[in-house]
Design brief:
The chain is mainly α. It contains 14 helices and no strands.
Length: about 260
């Protein structure tokens, strides 16, 4: 099993761009979430915050929809355009980064870890596109692999240090929320606290041990990464965390390349 640096980076780019396209489409499908009558309107979010007049003008509704539309278009082009010329490639990646930064400036609350992972991935891809040499590609992949492993480890250690995660209370509570919950699973967790606690502990163990994927032999690498993808797929279907699946699996080609070339 082999995976060149160029192949791995292309896989990272397609998976990450799919995540950006999905999250952009979600915004564009519900523009009322950003209009001037919403709690997420710029009239509310800019209170006690200072920006330049031009930036303030750009972040207001409906112009922010243009920013999101440009982000979606750039992501779609990156998915479909397999071999863009270096200048165009860097421009498309830069559009995604700039639009993502503007969105985070506009709304620092309510974002997800997936948004931060995607911004990190696209920043690395942009830097790599500006210097598209094999050595740069490899360093970028090693960095993304290390960042991915750190993200899983940090999440696992945080949960392990929390009594409400260790006893399953946090998992049951999350399943009972309106934003990330699932009524059927919440009722099931309430009826069976013991298995819920062990499910929470299983998540903790999985996240803490996941960085060991970097030491996995090639014969088992696909199975380990598939387990990670299934974990995020389960979170997407039960909690509505659609973009987490794409954001974190976008780092898997980097993990695979690093494991295979260590």
């Amino acid at each position: 099993m082999t995976l060149t640096a160029a192949e791995a980076l292309r896989a990272v780019e397609v998976l990450a761009a799919t995540g950006v396209l999905i999250t952009s489409a979600e915004f564009l499908a519900r523009p009322a979430l950003l209009d001037n009558r919403s709690l997420a309107s710029w009239n509310v979010l800019r209170l006690n915050r200072r920006h330049g007049a031009r930036l303030d003008h750009l972040l207001a509704y409906p112009r922010i929809l243009v920013v999101i539309g440009a982000r979606a278009a750039a992501a779609a082009a990156l998915i479909c355009w397999s071999a863009p010329a270096p200048p165009a490639h860097a421009v498309l990646l830069g559009i995604v980064v700039l639009a993502s930064v503007l969105l985070q400036l506009r709304g620092p609350y309510g974002g997800e870890g997936a948004d931060q992972i995607l911004l990190l991935v696209f920043t690395v891809l942009t830097v790599t596109a500006l210097h598209p040499h094999t050595s740069t590609m490899r360093l970028s992949l090693y960095f993304l692999a290390a960042q991915s492993a750190l993200a899983y480890l940090t999440a696992g250690l945080y949960k392990a240090a929390s009594p409400v995660w260790r006893d399953g209370t946090a998992l049951a509570g999350i399943l009972g929320t309106r934003c990330f919950g699932n009524p059927h699973l919440a009722a099931l967790a309430a009826r069976h606290p013991g298995p819920t606690a062990w499910a929470a502990r299983g998540i903790i163990i999985f996240e803490i041990l996941f960085p060991l994927v970097l030491l996995t032999p090639p014969s088992a690498l696909f199975l380990v990464l598939s387990a990670g993808a299934l974990f995020h797929l389960a979170c997407a279907t039960t909690m509505g965390l659609n973009v987490f699946l794409w954001a974190f699996t976008a780092t898997y080609p980097a993990l695979a390349h690093t494991a295979l070339t260590r």
